[in-house]
Amino acid sequence: MSLETAHRPVCAEAATVPPPSTRAVVAAYVAAAAATVGFIPLHAIWALGIPLFADPDLFRPWYEDGGGTYLLTLNLLALLPAVLALALVRPWGLCFPRWVPIVRRRGVPRMLLIVPGAGLSAALLAYTLFAAALMPFQWNDPAAIFDPRTGVYGVIQFSVWITGLAIATRSYARRTR
Fold it and tell me: Which of 16, 90, 142, 156 has its CA 20 to 30 A from that of 30?
């Protein structure tokens, strides 16, 4: 199956939208993987109460004081940007699937994906810059719950996520003009 037939729209509104470039498709899948495979496993381990790469004595009270709920919430929320990244390059980002009530087979308003894609890219960038600036101060901090090297991994992983999502969002914005 060619890239063009794999992305054939199913609604009239999207019939004139060209398929995404291979670069945009790869970027979207990389962003989705960064949001799930890159983020969820370590955070899921922590959400289960396992202090991997963390100080067990500091982790336990933090976890019991809401850290576990926070981590579970982060894991669930990480699924949304993965779906967003894929929607930017898949046919269901142009036309609502037939199983969606009321709007099935209608065109997806382009801003419904562009605004969250650009907004999330900007928010993740701000968070990553903040984490990178904070990292040197936590390197030898005895009150740091998590090993600072997890921050290094996080900055790299988030940079990949941001780049992939930004490329896919820009491609979608250009294609749907």
Answer: 16
| Residue in the block written with tokens 């060619």 | 2
> Which residues, in sequence order, are bridge partners of residue 107?
95
pLDDT in tens, 27-37: 999 999 999 99
pTM of the model: 0.89
Taking Cα atoms as reference points, which of 70, 78, 37 lies closest to residue 145? 70
**Neighbour tally for 170: CB within 10 Å:** 17
Flag whether pLDDT at 1 surpasses 50.
no
CA 43 to chain centre: 14
Chain-centre distance of CA 51, in angstroms? Answer: 24
Joined together, the tokens standing for residue 101 give: 């009530």
Mark residue 49 as left, alpha or beta (left: phi above 0; alpha: psi -120 to 50; beta: remaining).
Answer: left
